[in-house]
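Recap from last week: sequence in, structure out.
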Amino acid sequence: MPRIVKVLSILLCFSLVISQEKTDFRTKEEQQKDPKIALKKAMVFPGYGQIYNDQWWKGALILAGEVWAIYNFDQYRQDVKNYTPDFPYSSEHYISERNRFAWIAIGLYFYSVVDAYVEAHLDNFDQLVIENDPLNTKE
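Predicted structure tokens:
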């Protein structure tokens, strides 16, 4: 175990020392993301705005979290509906869990919408910083 930690720490230090220039293989049309389109796509389907912004993993994670929250909400909703005194917990427990997963689903939805909109605005941020850098002497 200590050897693995040493190797990983050396690799981490090595990767921090050697900087890499960001290479963007997208065309000019693909680079310019429209925040309104990202907003609309995120409002239609959670994670779709992140996929539009070329953030595939984030979009997949948001979608998986949304499915997980809705699934658990539905399970607890059924438990509340079919509650009998034989259940291991009180009815208040199932109601509070149902509500908690509803809030998680709603929060993930709004996070997805706001994140997609902001990321589309910041898509060409690196280029803007370089262009507006007063210390940049390239012309």
